[in-house]
Specification:
Radius of gyration: 18 Å
Helix content: 40-55%
Largest sheet: 6 strands, parallel
CATH architecture of the largest domain: 3-Layer(aba) Sandwich
Number of strands: 6
Order of helices and strands: EHHHHEHEHHEHEE
CATH class of the largest domain: Alpha Beta
């Protein structure tokens, strides 16, 4: 009999994809449309844009598509100013539309996955986000399956800080060893989940570098694989 009573999920890259980080997805889409920057240069700019979103008063209220649009617009503006035309052979609205079309396919599929998993487990979401986690879960109909939806901006701590995980455990009245944490980002999700004593499930296509195997209990390529896991 499984000792895992609850599954807690990351949002970006986990519920809206099969493990590809938001910036990696944007880079893939933008490169196809004419972004000629190396990944390392692009990632530095994208990180600065992500941080700058905190400066907009309405960020936490934006629907997912609207926030993706803002990220694309801010990236386009920044890359044009700093890197010139080599970084912006793409249009923000087109990239945002492609990004959301991909996301909506995964979110629709994973909504059904959550429905089925909810028959066996208690479910929750823990996300490093801009205050949008609960709103986006409601936007895509995932909120009906989650007992708790914890957001780093709301809590004031980001994964892997244990405070954000403890907030979810307190909400659900569970101990860490009752739970498994499912995420795509090793540094935030595997390190954070293991740090509080949860089992960890890494959404990994096999191409990701694992700095420490001891942090990962299980690997899956899709949330569809969760139904077949047997907890040791």
């Amino acid at each position: 009999m499984s000792q895992v009573r609850a599954l807690l999920f990351d949002f970006g890259g986990t519920l809206d994809n099969d493990g590809e980080h938001w910036f990696a997805r944007l880079y893939r889409l933008m490169t196809k449309q004419g972004c000629g920057l190396d990944w390392e240069v692009f990632a530095e700019h994208a990180d600065l844009v992500a941080r700058s979103l905190e400066n907009f008063a309405d960020t936490a209220t934006l629907l997912m598509g609207d926030l993706v649009q803002r990220i694309c617009e801010q990236l386009h503006e920044r890359l044009l100013a700093v890197e010139g035309n080599g970084g912006v052979g793409w249009q923000p609205t087109e990239i945002a539309g492609l990004f959301m079309a991909e996301s909506e396919q995964y979110l629709s599929r994973n909504k059904d996955v959550l429905r089925d998993l909810g028959k066996r487990y208690r479910l929750g979401c823990i996300s490093n986000n801009w205050g949008n986690t609960a709103g986006w879960c409601a936007e895509f109909g995932l909120d009906k399956y989650f007992e708790t939806m914890i957001d780093s901006t709301v809590v004031g701590a980001a994964k892997p800080d244990r405070k954000i995980f403890d907030a979810a455990l307190t909400d659900m009245g569970l101990a860490a060893d009752d739970c498994a944490y499912v995420g795509d980002w090793f540094g935030a999700d595997m390190v954070g989940g293991r740090g509080v004593g949860m089992k960890t499930v890494w959404l990994d296509d096999g191409a990701k570098n694992c700095p420490d195997e001891s942090m990962v209990d299980y690997r899956i390529k899709s949330l569809l694989d969760l139904a077949a896991l047997e907890w040791g």
